[in-house]
Amino acid sequence: MPELSRSQLLVYGAIAVAVLLVGARWIRSGDPEPAPGTGLSFAADAAPGGDRGSGDVVVHVAGAVLRPGVYRLPTGARVADAVRRAGGLAGGAQGDSINLAARLTDGQQVVVPGRGTMTAAGAGEAAGPISLGSATVEQLDEIEGIGPVTAQNIIEFREQHGGLSSVDELDQISGIGPSTMEALRAALQP
Asked: How many C-beta neighbours within 10 Å does residue 184 have?
């Protein structure tokens, strides 16, 4: 193999550094960056005020995850993808309390309850949102404005549609008006 001149070594070295920088930037583009002065993590390409028209969804992942924050994910992504993007479940997370298979919607907040956080099934703990994908008739009946008949209608609607990806889909159920929808948004998560 012929010996390389000093100028050839410099050119090859510069190319190698450029390739490494481009590769590092590409890898880093999928990692969250802290928002200045907030301590919150945002996706590297998330624009203030929402989506840039890319067809992606921007979601807020909170609760018992390793890196809570706001993340941009591809349209069609699931709650499990958002949790994975936020570093996965933290110790004490109650991953079975949320529907990991639900599709994400733009602007959605995904709250992963942890030990000491109340899902409607546990007594004596602090109240928190109930997972729409696993809520029982009894849990739904405890929400203000929902009675046993409407709770059963919600369960039937969920089963007929193969689950629900957004609380907003419940406005298709008879007996759920605007005030009930506000109570549902506060008490449920997809």
From this structure: 24
Tens-digit pLDDT profile for residues 92-104: 888 888 888 888 8
Token pair listed for 12: 């090859």
- The answer to whether residue 6 sits within a structural domain is no
Which contacts (CB < 8 Å, 24+ apart) does range 126-131 have? 129/186, 129/187, 129/188, 129/189, 130/187, 130/188, 130/189, 131/97, 131/98, 131/99, 131/188, 131/189, 131/190
Question: Domain check: are 125 and 141 in the same one?
Answer: yes
> What's the pLDDT score for residue 48?
42
Q: Which domain holds residue 174?
A: 118-190
Residue with tokens 């969250």: 32
124 & 106 share domain: no
Q: Give the Å distances, CA to CA, from 146 to 89, 120, 179.
A: 31, 14, 11
The structure's pTM equals 0.42
Q: What is the CATH number of the domain that holds 123?
A: 1.10.150.320
- Between the alpha carbon of residue 15 and those of residues 10, 12, 18, 24, 73, the distances in Å are 9, 5, 5, 14, 32
Q: Could you tell me which residues are beta bridge partners of residue 72?
A: 58
